[in-house]
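ESCALATION

Customer reports they have been waiting on this structure for their group meeting. Please prioritize. Original submission:
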Amino acid sequence: MPSFCKSPSLAFVLLLPALAAAQPADEVLTWEESVRRAAAMNPDLRAARDSLRAADMDVRGAGSGFLPKLTGSAVKSDTSSTSVTTLGTQDYSAALTASQNLFAGFRDQAGVAQARANRTVAEANLRAARARLSFDLKSAFAALRSADDALVLSTDILRRREQNLRLVELRYESGRENKGSLYLSQATLSQARFETLQAEHALRVAQAQFARVLGRDDPQTIRLAGEVPIAVPPVQVDFAQAVQETPDQQRALAQVEAAKAGVDVAASTFWPSLDLSGTTSVQGNDLNLDDRRNSVSLSLTVPIFNGGKDYYGTRSASARESAAEAAREGLIRQLRAQLEQSHAGYVQAVAKLSVDEAFLKAATARSEIARSKYSNGLMSFEDWDIIENDLINRQKAVLQSRRDRVTAEAAWEQALGNGAIP
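Update from on-call: job pushed to the front of the queue and completed.
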């Protein structure tokens, strides 16, 4: 065995390149690429698209009542007898029947109207799913970027706390600082180490949340590049018109239309049904089909009494229509309040970010001045510590405000039913 292989530490060093190559490389995603992947892979959005396709097929199926129906049949029958004079025979027959409903109490028209209303509901659901996914994606993207920046900030704070502690130790050793200041500096350093640990865990959680939105199973390999695009909040909003254009309102209106069509479907049972049918058939013995018959029939079916089922079914459908209309009225007021709240939160988040950035600018300047004064013995530890803590708190506040600003804009877009998902 070669001598260098006998050293475990040397063998581990030699294996480091292979171990590094075996690790999966981080995948860097931009906002645009994240949108494309979420639109293609998110399971909730795929489910909404499939539901819309199913509703389209239901509309086509509902129109089948206006088209004729064609059926065919072929029959072979054996007839046997115990009589000596009667022999067994085999009969063959084939028939083709065409039927057309001429009137069904407006049931077919109502069925088509109900299917189209349900398709509108599915379209509104798809639009709401896109808006919800856009909100989730923007929130997760902003959270992951914020967690990444928070880890960088925590590392910087840790380094700053270490430098501060060394400065305090030097002054303590020279007799110009007391033991309480030294202990407090040591405690703040421990807190900085703990917050760095928190930031590392928060980053992994944010990666998992972002992977969930994308529909992926490997969150630890995701890194982000760039920022979520932002826009200036509108100054004037026509909230009444905005409510009418939301997918929730469009869904509620379509549900009312579907309930109205349901009343017509239930009431169609009180009307007579008129059907036209024609049949052509051939039959004979031993495949000799020489007997041809044709028939045409016009039938009128009049409902008389079926135990009250039609009556109570119509009353039930009417009650569902009334309930759908009442729910829509309440929803309109709720949506108006939600839009007002989302818009206010959006405007306030933008303003708060501007305020926090101004405070951070001031805190940074004050911190630089305070450090110089404390180093030269021109400021007490208590005053310097207050300024240092204020700088750190302002840095954290700006990170949170940047995240909240993106989330607030995403919430406003979701309330409108809009977003970044195509």
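Sent to customer with the following note: The chain is about 65% helix and 15% strand.
Escalation resolved.
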